[in-house]
Design a protein that fits this description.
- Homodimer.
- GO terms for molecular function: magnesium ion transmembrane transporter activity.
- α9 runs antiparallel to α10.
- The protein contains 13 helices and no strands.
- It has 2 domains: 194 residues, no CATH class; 134 residues.
- By secondary structure, it is mainly α.
């Protein structure tokens, strides 16, 4: 109890609000996947399935409930960035994977493998580790302060480097390797996503201050951040859809989560200097928590195909046994035929 009391006293009220919003976001987003899938199945039973180009799900109320649930989750996630540092909020997105996997096991009767349960446990342990050692949120009084942080040499260099790499990927690598190399599309999404999260955080802070009585909408920086958010999100969604349409979702999701989260934490450390207010022990502990979450996420996605792999291996084993049986029968016939041929040859004068 004393440890919990010390932690609650040491954690700022803004971090607590951000934590609650981030967890709520994961709950809503994780549940939305299940509700939408139920809606898609129900719509597919009476119309053309979405997977083959149908849009009957647009008339299914259950699908819209799932969409509204997802929007609520995204709004909560947006608000979380206004209160807590990105190094706390972004990794907690893995909790939505746990919620989705658990509800799929209970509601959709989709089998959750033992390693999947272990992956959920690892995500919880990693998230708890990060929450317990997250840095306090920087106190910001106006959007002009955020603009000053965004225009410091360190973050300007990071932004210029990101833009240069993104342009090279889009105009050189996407036309040649986009359909064959998964890292091309995901690289664009993750790099642009790290900039979008910083802009989302700036916009969230501006709205938080505006609602508290300090109007930030009169500052041109607020609208500049809004323009950056819109541009980044459009680009991010465009190339994420390309990745999902081209490659297996079970492969895209964990790679995208790892790259997006890693680059977002890096951008936050550069722009908001989150680690300047922490000891080396706290930083190392946070990184260990992050690696634990990555391990759990990898296990969760890896176990999705275990049942299919088992079925395929069973089919291949059955085919192999059939081939061996056929070959064995042919060999027996060949052995039986040899003496008959010899007898025929002896009868010929």
């Amino acid at each position: 109890m004393s440890a919990v009391r010390r932690w609650s006293e040491g954690m700022s009220s803004d971090n607590v609000k951000g934590l609650v919003l981030a967890i709520s976001s994961s709950l809503f987003i994780g549940a939305s996947f299940i509700v939408k899938k139920k809606g898609l199945k129900k719509a597919g039973a009476s119309g053309v399935r979405a997977g083959v180009g149908g849009y009957s799900y647009l008339l299914e109320p259950l699908w819209w409930v799932g969409m509204i649930t997802m929007v609520v989750g995204e709004i909560a996630n947006f608000a979380a960035y206004a209160f807590a540092p990105a190094i706390l909020v972004t990794p907690l997105g893995a909790l939505s994977i746990i919620i989705s996997a658990a509800l799929a096991h209970i509601i959709l009767r989709e089998r959750l493998h033992t390693f999947g349960i272990l992956g959920c446990a690892l995500c919880v342990v990693g998230s708890t580790t990060i929450v317990l050692h997250a840095p306090p949120e920087r106190q910001i009084e106006s959007v002009a302060e955020v603009w000053a942080l965004a225009t410091e040499p360190g973050f300007l260099f990071y932004t210029a480097l990101v833009l240069a790499i993104v342009f090279i990927l889009i105009f050189h690598f996407v036309p040649q390797y986009g359909q064959t190399h998964i890292m091309v599309y995901i690289g664009v999404c993750s790099l642009v996503g790290s900039i979008s999260v910083m802009s989302v955080k700036a916009l969230g802070i501006a709205l938080k201050l505006t609602f508290s009585g300090m109007n930030q909408l009169v500052y041109p920086q607020t609208w500049a951040f809004t323009l950056v958010v819109a541009s980044c999100v459009i680009t991010q969604m465009n190339y994420l859809n390309k990745a999902l349409d081209t490659f297996n979702t079970a492969v895209v999701s964990p790679i995208y989560y790892v790259m997006f989260t890693s680059l977002t934490i890096l951008a936050s450390v550069i722009m908001f200097k989150d680690w300047d207010r922490q000891t080396p022990t706290q930083i190392i502990t946070e990184m260990c928590g992050f690696v634990t979450i990555l391990s759990g996420t990898f296990l969760l996605h890896k176990t999705k195909d275990m049942v299919d792999d088992y079925v395929q291996s069973g089919q291949s084993l059955s085919t192999s046994m059939s081939m061996r049986s056929l070959k064995h029968e042919e060999e027996e016939l060949l052995i039986e035929g040899i003496p008959l041929k010899r007898q025929d040859s002896l009868r010929i004068p």
